[in-house]
Design brief:
Shape: globular
Number of domains: 1
CATH topology: D-Maltodextrin-Binding Protein, domain 2
Oligomer: single chain
CATH superfamily: Bacterial extracellular solute-binding protein, family 7
């Protein structure tokens, strides 16, 4: 039995055991109880996006619309299987993290390619354009209806080694969570190791990897200063994705509940990216106080080689994985924001 089948089987068994149907539970009084899957509890997105949304839905529906919240680790999920759970209705809503599904739906990764964006605002604009033109019309591929894109924050290399030059990456084992991140780091001779976020701390502690790509919110929540010594900006971009609701779950809402959900989307969109900024700022402040040495921003002398890796490795390999229309989609949506096109 594969690990994927084991996880899906476990979720189905759990649903059967506790009496949860594959559709939202709607009584004669139209009470709806949804299940939501967030990535983690250690950052602001848990308390100020997920918990906030659940509270607002319950309050504005007069107690008729509730959401039971869990996280990927608590559910035994790696993230890639979430799209299937949403499409079947076993999960009502969740964080579809772009990098986690890049193997299954590579076209989505076009919004999150390392080295492409110069800053956070460019990344947000890129995600907005990609959602509207590429993701929104692919409901089944993403698991349902996209409520908003979101950002956990800027991504950095958290390492056990000092890095004075890009050549210092050669031979180093680096945890990644997306195909394009592997292409980017392998362009400098690193060895990419894909692993779930829940395994990162122990892998660094045991020396299984020499570094890990993640955000400052995770570094703070997991106390990474206990197992790494440096944080390095390699223009890896943002960790982001889409907050998605199952179409089967939406079909179980009455008119009032649908209106309540829709009314919260504008604020949800703003929160979903503002929280990413706060995650980065708050997390970096803590880890620097704990003694981690920072090379942030990236060294100016690295810029030419980083851009070359993006254009020669990341974009080329992504377009090959994503297939027909990928290059044209990038040039139409991302190129106007970043100032260059794919050849």
């Amino acid at each position: 039995m594969t690990k994927r089948n084991f996880i899906l089987g476990a979720v189905f068994a759990l649903a059967t055991t506790i009496g949860i149907s594959t559709l939202p539970t709607v009584s004669d009084a139209q009470e709806v109880n949804w299940r939501g899957a967030a990535l983690q509890r250690v950052d602001l997105h848990w308390s100020e996006r997920w918990v906030w949304l659940a509270d607002q839905l319950k309050e504005k529906s007069g107690g008729k619309f509730s959401v039971e919240l869990s996280t990927f680790p608590e559910l035994g999920l790696n993230g890639g299987e979430l799209i299937r759970l949403l499409n079947t209705g076993l999960m009502d809503m969740g964080d579809v993290v772009t990098g986690y599904v890049s193997g299954e739906v590579p076209i989505f990764e076009g919004a999150q390619l390392p080295g492409v964006y110069a800053n956070y605002n460019e990344a947000r604009a890129g995600y907005a354009a990609w959602e509207a033109s590429v993701v929104a019309d692919r409901g089944a591929a993403v698991g349902g209806r996209v409520l908003t894109s979101f950002s956990f924050g800027s991504q950095f290399l958290w390492s056990t080694f000092e890095m004075n030059d890009l050549s210092d990456l050669k031979g180093k084992r680096i945890r990644v969570f997306a195909k394009a991140q592997a292409d980017y780091l392998e362009a400098f001779g690193a060895i990419a190791v894909n692993m779930p976020l829940a395994e990162v701390y122990s892998a660094l502690q045991l020396g299984t990897v020499d570094g890990a790509v993640s955000g400052a919110e995770y570094a703070r929540g997991a106390s990474l200063w206990e197992v790494v010594s440096h944080v390095i900006d390699l223009r890896l971009g943002v960790g982001a994705g889409f907050m998605v609701v199952s179409e089967k779950s939406l079909a179980g809402l009455d008119e009032k509940q649908t209106a309540v959900l829709d009314s919260l989307i504008p604020e949800l969109r703003d929160r979903s990216w503002e929280l990413g900024k706060r995650n980065t700022d708050d997390g970096m402040k803590v880890v620097l106080e704990k003694g981690i040495k920072a090379t942030v921003p990236a060294k100016p002398e690295w810029e030419v080689d980083l851009l070359k890796a993006t254009q020669d490795a990341v974009l080329v390999n992504w377009a090959a994985r994503a297939g027909d229309g990928a290059k044209e989609a990038f040039n139409a949506n991302i190129a106007p924001i970043v100032g260059y096109e794919m050849n």
